[in-house]
Design brief:
The protein is built from four helices and eleven strands, in the order αββββββαβββααββ. With 201 residues, it is α/β, with parallel strands linked by helices.
Length: 201
């Protein structure tokens, strides 16, 4: 009987170290890619406003608070942004309690986000001292709406056309009137630990 081959423990250790290093580099690369993508999306949203707040808790008037992804001060007032990063075909409507996502071989539903948006708009209006407040649910390019967009829903690349950037100098007098209310909003909110955007798949 031939003797069993001996295992070179040093070689095994080297191979394991190389594999661990490769895995670490891969996960670091993935983390950096996601960080960069979040930064790009954040800029795409915030570039539409004169000022903004991100990931804040807005008091709801009932002793609790609502998470808001972005609050933008724009030429049309304050815009509440609910940012969604969902991949696949999305089927939703104003009267539907749940929206459906179909992506590759998967199918799932999520709660109609319009109701939550209306609650956030109402909470911000309660702080806004007459400053106009509106809101949008904004989806990234990973999602598609084959049957059309529901009310108050936008794709991220359509945000600048919906809320065009206005010249600050041209808006100076209006901004001066709005600033006390915007400052009051900023003082009334708190940082939120929830991260935006909400992602799926």
């Amino acid at each position: 009987m031939e003797p069993l081959p001996t295992v070179d423990l040093q070689l095994v250790a080297i191979v394991a170290s190389v594999a661990a290093l490769a895995a670490g580099l891969f996960f670091a690369w993935r983390w950096d890619q996601r960080r960069r993508m979040r930064a790009v999306r954040s800029f795409a949203v915030t570039s539409c406003g004169f000022d903004y707040l991100r990931d804040v808790l807005v008091p709801d008037g009932q002793g609790s608070a609502l998470h808001v992804d972005f609050l933008l001060l724009t030429a049309r007032g304050v815009i509440v942004i609910d940012l969604r990063d969902i991949a696949g075909n999305i089927f939703g409507g104003d009267q539907m309690s749940a929206w459906t996502v179909m992506h590759r071989a998967q199918r799932y539903t999520f709660v109609n986000p319009q109701t939550g948006l209306y609650d956030r708009i109402a909470a911000v209006r309660a702080l806004a001292q007459g400053l106009p407040v509106d809101g949008r649910i904004v989806f990234t390019a990973r999602g598609r709406f084959p049957k059309g967009l529901p009310r108050h829903t936008l794709m991220l690349d359509s945000l600048p056309s919906e809320f065009p950037v206005a010249d600050r100098e041209t808006m100076r007098s209006l901004l001066e009137r709005w600033m006390p209310a915007w400052s009051a909003i900023k003082k009334s909110v708190a940082p939120s630990r929830l991260a935006a955007p909400k992602a799926a798949i």
